[in-house]
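Intended use. Records such as the Thioredoxin-like fold domain-containing protein entry shown here are meant for training and evaluating sequence-to-structure methods. They are not intended to support clinical decisions.
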Amino acid sequence: MIVETTSEDFARLTNGKLVKSERPKTVIRNSREIVILGDVDKKKELFLKIFKKNLEDRGDIDAEVKIFIAPLCPVCPHVVEDICSLPIKKIEIIDVTDYPEIADEYDVMATPTVVIGKVKLVGKVSREEVLEWIKRGYDKKEYFAKLLKEGGAEDVVREVKKDGDASVLVDLLTYNDFMVRLGAMVAIEELAKENPEIVKKVKDKMRELLKHEDERIRQDVAMLLGDIGDESDREFLEELLKEGGDVEESAREAIDEIERRNQK
């Protein structure tokens, strides 16, 4: 086993003053590689013991996982221990207080955060969950569904803004979990306010859902078009007026809402 510790100069603002300091980097290599970016203070010895014990395993899982931690985070050591017990080829543990620019690069808002490719898992992440996402890879639909189910509509909106494609959100309007469908509606409404051009690109796809076999979907999409739509959506909504029941009521309310906006 090879253990290398280096440090680099780093300047940070402390109480309004630019203070120069050093931030350490520790690399432990065997058949696997563990990289610690930052001084994990009192937990450092615990982490090193974990790494030395688990580095005896082979790196059978060809993946790279990043774990963002903070010195006072009570959950972080448990997440680090669990993930390091997996035979993952390369793991990076990044202290966000010493390496804030890397945390910013990955939009890390809380610790612990585990990054596997484009997937971010926040909080007490289990070994099983990490293995599942490594095996699955970046399945955008399922990843967004997970975020939406956990109330992460803002995170989804941020991701959609990056690539400018909201088509997956439209797919999630038919998801079998109500909380995911609701989250997708919230995300689309937010995008319509902030980046209406992104939503316009998928408007035809949304209108097709007004013909969906499940009346709950037709009702939800009618309500959504009432919130974000315009006069061009009226003819599609008017088709639903023939159905009667809750679908007709939702379509009528949507048309009324569009008319109210036009009068402003």
